[in-house]
Design goal:
This protein is mostly helical. Helix content is 59%, strand content 3%. The protein has one domain. The C terminus is likely disordered.
Length: 194
């Protein structure tokens, strides 16, 4: 059994899976790949592809911090508590999105991917996140640090990284849901032309 704080993050990941699966299943291929704002916004497909890419990247960045903490014997001391700036960053990711951020280089979605490949990558990334959560259960995730993969001069707490993953999922799933509300979203009976 997981500690309540880690269970909440695991529940968030499971909830994100349900939302993503529902979004993907409830639209045609045209709707899945349709881009709002005259083609400048991300499609539902691109939101999910971005999450798959960045979550896998974050797991690879955070895992060494978890492993070092285990090697050093840094046992869990209490609930997850991101630092002040970490908490601010996590909160800035939460929907509704107030400020759009540019995706880091290499983390932009790849438009050429099909629905099945995107969903397989998304599921695999979330499975890796689940393993990371389980690995972090016995360590002091507030003391353990990892190098921020995008701002390499900063080391973040593992507890911050776990919170970032969950909030970032919510951000882009909210964004994907907004695509369905956007002007010009294709009707369900409209078929994809190739």
């Amino acid at each position: 059994m997981l500690f309540a704080d880690l269970q909440r993050i695991l529940d968030d990941v499971n909830d994100a899976d349900r939302v993503a699966e529902h979004l993907a299943a409830s639209c045609t291929d045209e709707q899945f790949h349709w881009r709002p704002r005259g083609g400048t916004g991300w499609s539902i497909a691109e939101c999910l592809d971005h999450l798959a890419t960045i979550n896998a990247f974050y797991v690879k960045a955070i895992q060494p911090g978890v492993d070092r903490a285990r090697t050093r014997g840094w046992a869990r001391q209490g609930p997850l508590k991101p630092g002040f700036f970490g908490a601010l960053f996590i909160n800035s990711l939460e929907p509704p999105v107030k400020r759009r951020l540019r995706a880091p280089r290499g983390m932009q979605p790849r438009a050429a991917k099909g629905r099945d490949e995107i969903l397989a990558d998304y599921r695999a990334a979330h499975d890796a996140v689940r393993r990371l959560i389980m690995d972090a259960a016995e360590i002091d995730a507030n003391r353990a640090r990892y190098r921020n993969p995008f701002l390499k001069v900063l080391n973040f707490r593992v507890s911050t990284g776990l919170g970032v993953i969950a909030a970032h999922d919510r951000r882009h799933l909210w964004q994907a849901e907004q695509v369905r509300q956007a002007a010009g979203y294709p009707p369900a009976n409209h078929t994809l032309t190739r």
